[in-house]
Amino acid sequence: MGQQILNAIFIGSIYALFAVGYTLVFGVLDILNLAHSAVFMLGAAVTYTLVVNHGQSFWLACVLAIVAAAFMGLVIEYICLRPLRRRRAPPIAALISTIGLALIIVAAIEQGRPGTLFAWLWVDGANPVTMPPGTFPNPTWHVAGLTLEGSKLAVVPVSIALMLVLGYVMRFTQVGRGLRAVAENPRAARLMGIDVDRLISLTLVISSALGGLAGILFGVALGGISPYIGRDSVEVRGLAVIVLGGMGSIPGAVLGGYLLGFIEVLAVVLLGSNVRAGVAFAALFLMLVLRPQGLFGAQLRERI
Amino acid sequence: MDFLIQLFTDPVAFWNSHTLLISQIGINSILASSMFVVLYSGQLSLAAPGFMAIGAYTAVLMDLYWHTPLALNIATGTAFAGVVGVAVGLPVLRLRGVFLAIATIGFIEALSLGVILNLPITGEGLGLKNPNADPLGGINIVLVSLAVVVFLLWRLTKGRLGYAWTAIRQDELAAQSQGIDVARYKLIAFVVSALLAGFAGGAESHLNFFVDPNEYGVPRTVQVLTFAVLGGSGNVLGPVVGALFLTTLPYVFQQAGDYIGVVSGAILIAVIIFRPQGIVGRGGFAFVRPRWWPRAQVRAPSTR
Amino acid sequence: MRRHFGGVHAVDGVTLEVEKGSIQGLIGPNGAGKTTLVNVITGYVPFQSGHAWLESDELTGLPAHRIAGLGISRTFQNIRLFKDLTALENVLIGMHTRRRDDTLAQIATLPMFRRDQRSRLDDARGLMETVGLAASDIAGRAAGTLPYGDQRRLEIARALALRPRLLILDEPAAGMNPSEKQGIRELIERLNEDGLTILLIDHDMRLVMGVCKRVAVLDFGRKIAEGTPAEVSIDAGVIKAYLGSGSERVVTSAPGASAAGDTELAGEGSAARPAVEPQKAILEIEDLTVSYGPVNAVRGASLRVATGEVVALIGANGAGKSTILNTLSGLIRPDSGTAVFDRLDLTRAKPSTIVRHGLIQVPEGREILARQTVLENLELATWGRRDGSAKRTQIEAVMKRFPILGERRALRAGTLSGGEQQMLAIARGLLARPRLLLLDEPSLGLAPQMVDEVFKAIQEIHDEGTTILLVEQNALRALEIADRAYVLETGQIRLSGTGEDLLHNPAVRRAYLGG
């Protein structure tokens, strides 16, 4: 049971970190960025490739992978979102253009094998791979019958620290106020001299960097890196998280992430491992039907 | 290119060697039509694979346990999907836009991960063997029913129902001011869509010796949405063209080979940015229509 | 035909009866609650209390589509056609309630259905002709591509397709030029002669006074007068509501006592002295033309503002005032013409550059950030300024100047009253260090004593040396404090002169009340 709670906290941290980026974009733009899970996967994949195929040090690889993820944020903005915004297209259009980008990213990794165009990016095709042991320090302790792996333990403080930093930036800095202004009323923000397009680019960069980092942590701690980890592990769960917490709310996404982690673990304990994912989505469905603003939406939505 | 050359030079051989492909195009077209109905009435529902699963499992289980005739099996599966459509649609259709999309994703994931993977009768995730499938003979059923579906939808869109759907899609408030019961017509569209998806699921199960529970998840719904959006959702032919185009793309561009995912993602983004009404616009193939071709007019007898 | 209201939010205890077969007018200044009233009647906004009946049918609590089914059909203030559908399809959709469910006939493609469809098409074309649209030309065109006036008419045709017992027209002539307005007026009279009961809502008194037998006047959600057009137009309360609560001096000297509808006053309009345009201007607008799709909102407007001036830009709703301001702020791009602010080309520059250059807009409706605190709103207003400590002291200074903002600094701006929000919006404008402050309708929807406060603040800001371009509906108050003013009508500058001149010019009243 203790082990299960540890797992819940660990997986909840990753869900929360991933969902914070998701919800940030939704809060500012009212758009679901479905390429977010592809960026998550890219973070893990780039780290692996840099370490294993290009012989870089683990820490440098992490930094470069986050930079790559942040760059994907700019790609999302300039290719998928800005042209549609110029045309005042409905939000559904952006949903589809980001699906298109996600397809491209996943297909590129999927096809990465020796001798192909994307061999520099990935060589294992659709196969799941795991970081070779010893790439990063992973001390393991056994305390009171619990197994504590360093790589998993590290996820929790890293996530929490980043989310606190983001919360601080959103709440107390001029940039954060600007982002909230854009979220609430882009027209008023423009009239106050805020360069709305630039802040939206910044939003995508922050969101994607966080998504990429969540991917790195996931890949390091759980292994099994494949082109599909974004799609299968976090894409729809991320939706569940931001719906549970209230769409667009950052504190809501954090709480939603841990809540989902606990719901899943509880479902495994009580009902067996098969129902794990199903329970999460049933919760998502019920939440939307009964309380679409999310558990904390009413109070927290306005803080983004 | 061989693909196209064979199609034009030796259609009979083409038919014989691509029976499965053609059947799959038919199934995909019906699915895309199911998506078309909800999009045509202005709702982004992604529930199609869920109703497919209901149709498929119902049909196969009836065949396995009761040895009932195929037509009855598919009809029952379709009807069951429709009933579930009413039950799901009633609570869910209060939601709009991405919230509706997320709720329907919750529904399909809860259904496939929560229910299908856990019931002994559905094989608990191992899938179902379907010994009485007829992969080659099924093509007739599929193509005939596709023709019927397209005809029915074409007629429906021309009638009072179609006008009401169009009005709701364009402007719900204005539609109400014309006396259109928005909630009712939305539900009708949702249920019609569920029936079509249920039918497609039942028919598809007849083509495969195996019902794979993993077929009915989010990737499938993304695929179906792509068909409908790419083809265009203002005209009944749009989804069929979209399904035809995307299903044959890997065969037509064989030299693109492994990069087909990248190519189709790029096409999707290009279409949503440059031709948001889809390949087939509302008035037909405006894209390929020469300038001297008469414009699509609302046909009407001249006023004296 | 009766309908009663009581205690509706934004509409307060209004009772209104529309006599069968008549044209009832409903007028009132912006924000008076006219459209809210219509939305309540037609089921878009729930009743808080009160009742409404259409003949013997109770409407209270019914959803919008049921009310439409009972025979109340409406148009919308900001045109809600099905834009991508053809004009003919728009009218056909209007026939929904009187069309039998023909799903089965459709599927079977029965001849019976064909006959129905043919008669419906004839009917729809007939309706288009009734409202003055050439069905043969435009039936097949997408509604959104039609000229603005045709869109208004098409919306009326769609409303008529319902065969209503009561037709509610919400500002059918907004944004139209005088000849188009005349056309709408004739159309309304013609429809009424055919026996249709009409409730006409408009700003333009000229239109309402011309066609209505009875007129009700709303202000702040209350009915302040009702009677024949002649009675209403000399009602002191009505004149005050319309021309604004000027100082006592102005109200008595305003030509309120002479009867409205007296068209001879028009001749005196030209008596205004030509504007004394400054030679050295900080803002120069030359021949500006702006359109939204097919709508020409501003047509060839030219105006100048010199440093230190207060210039008022007045005109009725839909005259193009806000469009000009939004063009200056870079939110809309003009079709042609120039707008230069201190050597910066406003037709090209990004909104953020324009703000940094010192041209600040306090927008209509205030647009404060309701979810952020008062202090956060003020801090955001210094966006782009790099002078950290000066920013702080100025924020403190602004909070001293508007003490109410200082007191409420930690509250969410959305919880402030309308007047307080306006103060916040103006304070925000000041913090951006304007060299030219654009104020768009600062008194909109405020109670009279708040209007006084706001104008006092504007006067003070001007006295401190800020140049101001003021857009107002409250013409008298605006002219009182303005050095010069321009009168805008249907996108064109009709008159200009000193504030004093225009204040005593009957043509100004004409532009507003349509006398």
Quick take:
The complex is a heterotrimer of chains A (304), B (304) and C (515). Chain A is mainly alpha-helical and 304 residues long.
Folded structure, characterized:
The complex is a heterotrimer of chains A (304), B (304) and C (515). Chain A starts with a helix and ends with a helix. Chain A is built from twelve helices and two strands. With 304 residues, chain A is mainly alpha-helical. Chain B has one domain. Chain B has 13 helices and two strands. In chain B, strands 1-2 form a two-stranded antiparallel sheet. Chain B is globular. Chain C has 515 residues and is α/β, with parallel strands linked by helices. The two termini of chain C are 30 Å apart. In chain C, a hairpin with a 2-residue loop joins strand 9 and strand 10. Chain C folds into three domains: 136 residues, Rossmann fold, CATH 3.40.50; 76 residues, no CATH class; 244 residues, Rossmann fold, CATH 3.40.50.300. In chain C, strands 6-7-8-3-9-10 form a six-stranded mixed beta sheet, sandwiched between helices. In chain C, strands 16-17-18-13-19-20 form a six-stranded mixed beta sheet, with helices on both faces. The radius of gyration of chain C is 25 Å and the shape is globular. Chain C is built from 22 helices and 20 strands. In chain C, helix 3 packs parallel to helix 7 and helix 5 packs across helix 7. Chains in contact: A-B, A-C, B-C. Chains A and B meet through helix 3, helix 4, helix 9 and helix 11 of A and helix 6, helix 11 and helix 13 of B.
